[in-house]
Amino acid sequence: MLAQETVDLTATVFTEAYYFITVALMWLLHVGFMTYEAGASRRKNVMATAIKNILTIAVVTPVFYYLGWWVYFCMQEGLLPTTTADGKNGVDTAFYFCGDGYGLPWTGSMGPNLGDNITAVFWAAFVLFSWTTGSIMSGAIIERVRTSGYLWLTALMGGIIWVIAAAWGWSFGGWLVLHFGYHDFAASGVVHGIAGIFTLGVLFNLGPRIGRYDRNGGTRSFKPHNLHMTLQGLMLIFTGFYAFYAACLAITADAVPGWANIYFSPATLGAITLTITMGFAGGFAGGYYFSKRDPFWTISGGLAGVIAVSSGADVYSPNLVFILAFLGAGFAYYCGTFLEQRVRLDDAVGAVAVHGFTGFLGVILMGIFASGYPTGPSGMETSLLGQLVGVAALFPLAFFSGYLASWVLKKLNMLRVPPAVELEGLDVAEYGSDFFPEHAKDREMITLADGTDVEAEAILREALADIMATSSGATIDLTKEEAGDGHVSV
Amino acid sequence: MDTFPYESWEEAIVDAVESGGANGYFTWAQSDMSVVLALLGIALAAVWMLWLTRNETNHLNECAGRLNEKWGIN
Fold first, then answer.
1. Which positions in chain B touch A480 (Cβ < 8 Å)?
2. Which residue among A88, A96, A138, A316 is buried most deeply as judged by most CB within 10 Å?
3. Which of A13-27, A148-162, A330-344, B20-34 is the least confident region?
């Protein structure tokens, strides 16, 4: 029989390795987001889109390292930091280190430390979640947002706002958990809902791409430059999703069955594996059915299906998951169509519907289908009312922070690129090059509201004229014709 | 710049190993210099963001100036 010390050491090293592997695999989420968004972009915006995703890592990581991790541990009682080391929310536990400065970048947990195998890899899993929130917003606002404007917004959301939500509802001591039994196992609300609704606030200030809507309220469609790349990106995201789910589990050597959810209630890796797999199956089927064979909504339906069941992924029966995911994909489709056509919200990848509204739907579904489950150290039973309180707290946190931050950027003229740059394409303007020099440049095409494909330039010039007519000062000369190969050296 | 809070690396390693890791071992944590390093890092991140913003703004304005004529913006 192995000595207890050997057993303990093995458990410790396994736990460290487990989180490390989830972190490495979660990178696929970001490979996928970048690939997806670059594929969904028109040819003239491919590199600007991809660079935006890469710089997400450069910006969100330090914000989360220097501030976000401390926010997670010290703002679980609300918007004011807790300053005492124990007794938070009436629960005395060794997991609360806020009063000792836990999570601050100069403490022993945030660097090489032979006495702490877990904190660093656990932090890394969280920073991958942080990047994910930024990437969710990133796709919605492509082809017209300034890189710097996006980065300020993603620093705020990825480094702080979603972390506050996680502190409240995705921690051992959050006030939503302790007092309302808020249960959000795989972050339907605190990651997907927050990121999607923050994006909603941003889109109201950012506005649609030039030419997206016609004068009669009809919706035009731009041509993604590489649909296969888009689909491949989504498949990479789905692969990374398994790691995301796995990272939502904690390993507890002193409890049965050895795994726990983030509220330290028992769970199993097998259960969440069943949930995510059945969720994808139901979501793809639902997306295909409700959208009537639309490829974009078929594959986005898989994502929406999983997000709809993520709050209860640790406790749902796979039989229930398949049905809820099927319906969740339909909800996302109708929600996305409504936002696009009625609200005239130009969300290039459907992020607001798929992540935002379907995420919060997932939170509510947990209250309907798994009410009574004792969540968190207080054993507070999860209920529909408690889940609704969570939505009522998190939805405005996300929306108003996104709206206000983007409003300030808009007022400072830091949100959107100039119209001429948007029309010419961000790659030439930002990076001075067409990134497919080996391929001849075709005329840009656009799909009208009636489904007809036409050359885009005249449409774009007309849309630009409409914008200039309603803005201050500048005028547009519609007789101006494109010269040469349509390229301007900048 | 001394970012190491022990007298020697050997002493720190022995201390950590003999205590089974309980005493920990980190090169800068909980020293005053670790606070300085963190503040320098925060300053670097902030200055880099400001530089990126200013650089992009200048570049976009320059590009817009050249492209406005092509797109007929007066």
1. 69-72
2. A138
3. B20-34
Whether the CB-CB separation of A328 and A283 falls below 8 Å is answered with: yes
The residues facing A447 across adjacent strands are A221, A453
The confidence score (pLDDT) of residue A2 equals 66
Comparing C-alpha atoms, which of A115, A109, A127 is closest to residue A65? A127
Chain B stretch 18-57, residues whose beta carbon is closer than 8 A to a beta carbon of chain A? 19, 21-30, 34-35, 37-38, 41-42, 45, 49, 52-53, 56-57
The pTM of the full predicted model, rounded to 2 decimals, is: 0.92
Count the neighbouring beta carbons within 10 Å of the beta carbon of residue B42. 16
Q: What angle do CA A244, A395, A301 make, to 5 degrees?
A: 50
Q: For residues A220 and A448, what is the distance between their CA atoms, to the nearest angstrom?
A: 5
Coil, helix or strand for A100?
helix
- A114·B64 Cβ contact <8 A: no
- Is residue A484 within 8 angstroms of chain B, CB to CB? no
Distance from CA of A131 to the nearest CA of B (A): 16
Instruction: Evaluate if residue A231 carries a pLDDT over 80.
Output: yes
d(CA A467, CA A470): 5
State the Cα–Cα distance between residues A179 and A166, nearest whole angstrom: 15
Residues of chain A with Cβ-Cβ distance to B27 below 8 Å are 111-112
A420: chain B residues, CB-CB within 8 Å: 63-64, 67-68, 70-71, 73
Of A110, A115, A108, A13, the closest CA to residue B19 belongs to A115
Query: Percentages helix, strand, coil for chain B, rounded to the nearest 5?
Result: 65, 0, 30
Cα A437 to chain centroid distance, Å, stands at: 33
Distance of residue A419 Cα from the nearest chain B Cα, in angstroms: 8
- The whole-angstrom distance between B1's CA and the closest CA on chain A is 16
* Mean pLDDT value across chain A: 89
Q: Which two tokens stand for residue A464?
A: 């630009």
| Chain A contact for B58 (CB, 8 A cutoff) | no
pLDDT tens by residue, A322-335 = 999 999 999 999 99
Pick the residue from chain B with its C-alpha nearest to A476. B73
**Among candidates A35, A19, A30, A54, which has minimal Cα distance to A126?**
A19
Which tokens in the block code for residue A205? 């200030």
- Pairwise CA distance, residues A44 & A482, whole Å: 16
Q: What are phi and psi of A212, to 5 degrees?
A: -70, -35
- Tens of pLDDT, residues B19-64: 777 777 777 766 777 888 899 999 999 999 999 999 999 999 999 9
Give burial (CB, 10 Å; 0-12/13-18/19+) of A138: buried
The DSSP H or E segment spanning A178 is: helix A175-180
